[in-house]
Write a structure and sequence with these properties.
Blueprint lengths: L10 E6 L2 E6 L10 H16 L6 E5 L3 E3 L17 H17 L5 E5 L2 E3 L1 H7 L3 E5 L3 E3 L13 H9 L1 H10 L3 E2 H7 L4 E3 L4 H13 L3 H14 L4 H16 L2 H12 L12
Parallel strand pairs: 2-3, 3-5, 4-6, 5-7, 6-8, 7-10
Antiparallel strand pairs: 1-2, 8-9
Helix pairs in contact: 1-2, 4-5, 8-9
The structure holds ligand T3D.
The site of ligand T3D has 25 residues, from helix 2 and strand 6.
């Protein structure tokens, strides 16, 4: 197995106008997670959240893969007692998923190649998932005797239904991007060479949007996963009240009536 050069950061962050590009950067291991990458990714997300000029985030992988999940070279069975994988989820994967989903701005995944194991879960937790035609989603867990994690057993039945969720989880077969899009697992499959351009265009558009409203939309859709209709209607009322008091709403209506494009100010500093 090739090693990552020790001077290479495991996460790259690029600041763009209104958004950030965060790249998983362990290409020799297909961007598999080790502890350093967990820490670096979580710091990059926290930093983006703290930046008032950041209105969206683009997540992608360096090289030919998006992310191959846990780095299995850190899991080679040795002479000592087996590792507690529940502890690994509790300390690393679960906090990452919670942090990613709680970001107040949209996260766009540009899945440039294979997304396997927790790498697939990571991609699927993003708000808008674009995948290159050559990309594949693999629930690799069953092949090594594990259970889909990082929210996969929660996401899959919701996104593709019970029958397909079971097939994917139990068989661990690669699902190509076009089928993933057809099944509703992701937003869109695009030509490999168009992937980054499309993902960047979406981030630019979101970052120029009514960003408070976009954050409220995320909250409403997240809550809908657990609410009954009455509870959700009450939540929509509360969130709409909040949205209706924003300068962006006033600007949106004014621009519509003036027959011009709106210029939103948002919560995020533009
Ligand atoms: O442990 C815990 O903390 C619990 C949490 C677990 C979460 C999980 O994600 S468990 C699932 C872990 N991931 C996998 O089981 C996937 C393992 N990888 C693969 O099955 C295949 O590599 C892929 C299907 C992803 C890609 O196949 P292919 O043929 O395109 O590439 P390859 O030749 O297998 O891999 C290229 C290199 O990346 C290779 O290294 P080498 O031989 O060139 O030096 C390979 O060993 C390395 N690599 C790929 N995936 C991993 C990896 N190295 C370490 N960990 C990996 N997950």
């Amino acid at each position: 197995m090739s090693d990552q050069p020790s001077d290479q950061p495991s996460i790259l962050v690029e600041r763009r106008a209104g958004y950030r590009v965060v790249t998983l950067n362990r290409p020799a291991r297909l961007n598999a997670f080790n502890e350093d990458m967990h820490h670096a990714l979580r710091a990059a997300l926290a930093d983006a959240q703290a930046d008032p000029a950041c209105g969206a985030l683009l997540l992608t992988g360096a090289g030919r893969a998006f992310c191959a999940g846990q780095d299995l070279s850190d899991r080679a069975p040795g002479s000592g007692p087996p590792r507690d994988l529940g502890g690994s989820l509790e300390n690393f994967y679960n906090p990452l998923v919670r942090q990613l989903r709680a970001l107040p701005f949209p996260v766009v995944a540009a899945v440039n190649g294979t997304a396997a194991g927790a790498g697939a879960s990571l991609a699927l937790h993003c708000d808008i998932v674009l995948a290159a035609h050559s990309a594949k989603f693999i629930q690799a867990f069953a092949k090594i005797g594990l259970v889909p994690d990082s929210g996969s057993t929660w996401l899959l039945p919701r996104l593709v239904g019970a029958a397909r969720a079971r097939g994917l989880a139990l068989l661990g077969e690669p699902l190509v991007a076009a089928t993933a899009a057809e099944w509703g697992l992701i937003w869109k499959a695009v030509a490999d060479e168009a992937l980054m351009g499309e993902a960047e265009a979406i981030c630019e558009r979101l970052a120029k949007g009514a960003t408070i409203g976009l954050g409220l939309i995320k909250r409403a859709l997240d809550a809908a996963e657990r609410n009954d209709l009455d509870t959700q209607l009450a939540l929509e009322r509360d969130l709409q009240r909040e949205a209706g008091f924003t300068p962006d709403y006033a600007e949106g209506v004014r621009a519509f009536l003036d027959k011009r494009a709106p210029v939103f100010s948002g919560r995020r500093g533009r």
